Amino acid sequence: MALFRATPLVLSLAAAWPALAATPAELETVQVTAHRSSKPLAETAPNASVISRHKLDDQLVRDIADAVKYEPGVEVATDPARRGNAGYTIRGIDGNRILMLIDGIRLPESYAGGGSNNGAVSGRDYVELETLRAIDIVKGPTSSLYGSDAIGGVVGYRTKTVDDFVPEEQGVGGSVKGFGGTANNGWGSSAGVGVKGERTDLMLLYTHRNGHETDNQGNNDSSSTLRTKPNPQSWDSDNVLAKLGFKPAANQRLELTLEHYQRNADSNLLNSLGPVVNQRGMTLYTITGKQAQDRTQRDRASLTWEGRQLGAFDRLAIRAYYQKLNNADNDTEWRDNGQRIRSDYGFKQDSYGLTLEAEHNFQALSAEHQLLWGADLSRTDTSRPRLKTQYNPNGSSSNIVDGETYPNKTFPDSRSERIGLFVQDEIKFGNGLVASPSLRWDHYKMTPQPDQAFANGNPNNYQVPAFKDSAFSPKLGLSLPFADHYTGFLQFSSGFRAPPFDDANMAFTNPVQRYQVLPNPNLKSESSRGVELGLKGQWDSFDFGVTAYANRYKDFIDLASLGTINGLSAYQYQNIGEVEINGAEGRAAWRFAPAWRAMASIAYAQGRDKQRNQPLASLTPLNATLGLRYDQANYGGEAFLRLVTANTRIPDLRPDEARGQSTIPFKAPGYATLDLTAYWKPAKNTILRAGVFNVFDQKYWKAADVRGKSSSVRTLDLFTQPGRNLSASVEYTF
User: Fold this and answer.
1) How far is CA 660 from the centre of its chain?
2) Model pTM greater than 0.90?
């Protein structure tokens, strides 16, 4: 059987293989996250990349899954039934092992509710992409600059500034944009304005979206657990971003940033309807209706002062911030016995923080130095309140539902305090060799705050201890230009991740469903070590970047089965041992004729859970992207052919993972999809864009979406991607 289903276009576009980087203007794209300071992308190691505003617009990106669709080694898992996008997976590492930043500020964590990431109760798709000027991605351990949670990589969002609307020293500018697509029958609009004065400036940007469930290629539209069409859903989102700047002196800037994001989704959970059976095979009741109302709200406020050329400091920046996430996943369930069950669940995180960054440029020991040092201080309060009420046919109500007493919490309210100190010296020698040693020290402390709600879910009174740990995370980067056109890169990196709020503190018992989760006072922090070897080449009409890496992760935390304890199935988060991941990635671009550019990228990874001596299930199969772009002054377009091989290197499921199904996992078949986009500028300040995606209407699955699914599951088509779909946008700038 072929690894992927090819179309005739595969062969024609394959001839354009020498191909994914950028036009000459784009070669100076700036990467900020990889070095915690601005640096041309051409000078960064191949494990760092940038998704520019230009790419987001031209590719008609509608969400984070679209944003990284062509990025080698990166993908996003999605729950098609209700939750939507979960978060990023980078080189097989996902969830809260990927640090996410917005303008240098840590974004809230996700909460999977003890389940898989693609069914995350609270995912990490809570940033409006229309507010962004770029997305920085750093692949591999990055704790030497960012500390805990950067064990697998960093995704850094950079939001628009007043300069994006008013590039001149003074003036007024803005834009209005409308967009829509058939994949989710959604549409939206965005409007922004910037005003610059002699010493003050203001930027205001508002975006609204609404839509419905994302289409797939399932064909069972029954109201039952066998349904494979997506559940009916209606959603809307609003985002406001405001920035007010003031220059107290020519070399200083003070900026206040305020942001509000809110998303509401109403879902009819038709695939939940049907009988509920206990472990003994007895039908307890039948669900006749279920409606969900989910809400995500994120608010951010920050005040940043930055000065340049201040005595010994070439740059000095101080930022204070506050960020709040309030996620609500509520639903109402109707049963055939006349009962109505109302669930009001939440996930909340409040964060306060202070960051300091200082930069010095000087010469010493026959070399140029760029010394960066600073500190990160933060405090995060996390809570998961759960309330459920049973309304009976006789008019009475109860907060004891299916054996659980409500309100309850699966883990106590937790306070996490972080202190991080870091230093990096980029040393450039006369022969072009650049050495970048860096070191970070982190202290992490998590304090549980149990209350009566936690006691209600913990009737055995399991004690949850406080946790604290400290770690040093070193890194050494080397780069050497040679033979005029080439630069070699070598990196030795390390990562560190303290046990998060749920892994360390979960203690929960359900006597009716007959399971319990026990806390583990002996959990240790995860750690990683990595080595990466890369090469970049650049000519007037051609450039490329290749990299090979080997990462080792130690004391990985995962949910383990303890068998039966006191008549209940028992589980516990444990350090399962070591995981190793090796791989290679490459990209190239070739300007083979005026206005024409060919592009290509490829990613390969293999990994192994050494404790269980089995392949790692979270890796993306071998995949490649071929592209062809044409640009004129007023019009242009591009084609992307994405090729993915079958996902064959995955382990058999454990019996507790299979849940009564076959332990043989579903292995997503290979596929090839073609996307076409075009743009036209009918007037100086107006641009129209349109795209056709999955042109040949291929039926396919993303490996991340079916991870952990049995081959005998009858609803696998629920996880298929949309068939042929269209998107378009129109933008006017002034």
Assistant:
1) 31
2) yes
Cα distance between residue 394 and residue 388, in whole Å: 18
Residue whose pair of structure tokens reads 């396919």 in the numeric block: 700
pLDDT (0 to 100) of residue 656: 66
In angstroms, how far is CA 306 from the centroid of its own chain? 29
Q: How far apart are the first and last CA of the chain?
A: 55
DSSP 243-255: EEEE-SSTTEEEE
Q: Which of 50-64, 104-118, 365-379, 586-600 is least confident? A: 104-118
Return the structure tokens found at 444.
């992490």
Q: CB under 8 Å, gap of 24 or more: what pairs does 561-569 form? A: 561/654, 561/656, 562/518, 565/516, 565/518, 567/514, 568/509, 568/511, 568/514, 568/515, 568/516, 569/514, 569/515, 569/516, 569/656
Q: Which conformational region is residue 657 in: left (phi greater than 0), alpha (psi within -120 to 50 degrees), or beta? A: alpha
* Lookup: tokens for 327: 């996620």
Task: Count CB-CB contacts under 10 A for residue 151.
Answer: 29
Written as one letter, the residue type at 258 is L
- Rounded CA-CA distance 130/213 in Å is 21
Separation between Cα atoms, residue 127 and residue 700, nearest integer Å = 27
Segment 292-304 mean pLDDT: 97
Position with higher pLDDT, 493 vs 558:
493
Structure tokens of 593? Answer: 């004729």
The residue type found at 416 is S
User: Which tokens is 10 given?
Assistant: 């595969």
Mean pLDDT in residue range 716-730: 97
Q: Rounded to an integer, what distance in angstroms lies between the CA atom of residue 64 and that of residue 715?
A: 25
Residue 552 pairs in a beta bridge with 529, 580
| Nearest residue to 269 (alpha-carbon basis) of 339, 328, 326, 330 | 330
CA 499 to chain centre: 19
Task: Report residue 276 as tokens.
Answer: 């509920």
Per-residue pLDDT tens over the stretch 72-84: 999 999 988 898 8
At residue 120 the predicted structure's pLDDT band, cuts being 50, 70 and 90, is: low
Question: What was the pLDDT predicted at 30?
Answer: 78
Q: Are strands 200-212 and 233-246 parallel, antiparallel or unpaired?
A: antiparallel
Q: Look-up: residue for tokens 């459920």?
A: 388
Q: By the 8 A CB rule, do 392 and 339 touch? A: yes
From the list 5, 170, 1, 13, the residue with the least C-alpha distance to 675 is: 13
Supply 210's token pair. 């609404």
Cβ neighbours, 10 Å, residue 341? 18
Q: 10 Å Cβ neighbour count for 158?
A: 22
Q: How far apart are CA 198 and CA 375, in angstroms?
A: 32
Find, among 129, 143, 163, 127, the residue nearest to 30 by Cα: 163
DSSP states of 309-321? EETTEEEEEEEEE
* DSSP assignment of 319-331: EEEEEEEEEEEEE
Only one residue has tokens 């033979």, namely 483
3-state secondary structure of 54: helix
Distance CA 226, CA 216 (A): 15
Instruction: Kindly report the number of other CB atoms within 10 A of residue 112's CB atom.
Output: 21
Burial class of residue 162 (count of CB atoms within 10 Å of its CB; 0-12, 13-18, 19+): buried
Tell me how far apart the alpha carbons of residues 138 and 309 are, in angstroms, rounded to a whole number.
29
Identity of the amino acid at 48 = A
Picking from 56, 47, 46, 48, the residue whose alpha carbon sits closest to that of residue 31 is: 48
